[in-house]
Amino acid sequence: MNPAKLIGIILIVAGGLGLAYGGFSYNKESTAMKLGSMELKVQEKETVTVPLLVSAGAIALGIFLLVAAGRK
Fold first, then answer.
1. How many CB atoms lie within 10 A of CB 61?
2. Smallest Cα–Cα separation from 58: which of 69, 66, 48, 46?
3. Tens digit of pLDDT for each residue in 26-64?
4. Is 23 left (phi over 0), alpha (psi -120 to 50) or beta?
5. Which member of 23, 46, 62, 72 lies 3.0 to 4.6 Å from 8 by CB, making a disulfide possible if both were Cys?
6. Ramachandran region of residue 16, left (φ > 0), alpha (ψ -120 to 50) or beta?
7. DSSP classification of residue 26
8. Whole-model pTM?
């Protein structure tokens, strides 16, 4: 499979997921306090939003790569 086709498919799938979910969240662990050998760790939930234009742009670029790779 042509690398351009593979990248195009990945961009289309990622753009579709961005449109469907609108973002993703993950847990970030950080050290709140350290006293000698004892540590107090805190987990924070971080949320990243994916803009609509970025998702649509990824889909458009993926379609372009598929079409351009198919013409060769």
1. 15
2. 66
3. 999 988 888 888 989 999 999 999 999 999 999 999 999
4. left
5. 62
6. alpha
7. E
8. 0.73
